[in-house]
Amino acid sequence: MNTLDEYTIDELLEEIELRKKRKPNPQKVKNFGLLIDLCIKYIETIARGEYMKDDAEHYIFEAAMEGAYGKDIWKWINERLK
């Protein structure tokens, strides 16, 4: 395995740019409205002593990912999980 000393600054900067392109960036304008609504519903249901039977955790996770990265995040994730 190579050490960092074996690369030029330009090669290292190029690698950093490539890695940035491979990884999605969070949206500048976050959209967490759905996430907040789902979390409130989840907590209110538990406060009433009821149990969420509709995979609430799954939907909360989806809303969090889409709120931070946009709906296209699933395409990026699915391409890498094949």
Structure summarized in a few sentences:
With 82 residues, this protein is mostly helical.
How many domain regions? Answer: 1
Radius of gyration: 20 Å
Molecular shape = elongated
Structural class: mainly alpha
The overall average pLDDT, rounded, is 87
Structure explained in plain terms:
- With 82 residues, this protein is mainly alpha-helical.
- It has one domain (4-80).
- It is built from four helices and no strands.
- The protein has helices at residues 9-22, 33-47, 56-69, 73-80.
- Helix 2 packs antiparallel against helix 3 (56-69).
- It is elongated and about 60 Å long.
- The two termini are 27 Å apart.
- The model has no long low-confidence stretch (mean pLDDT 87).
Keywords:
4 helices, mainly alpha, single chain, 82 residues
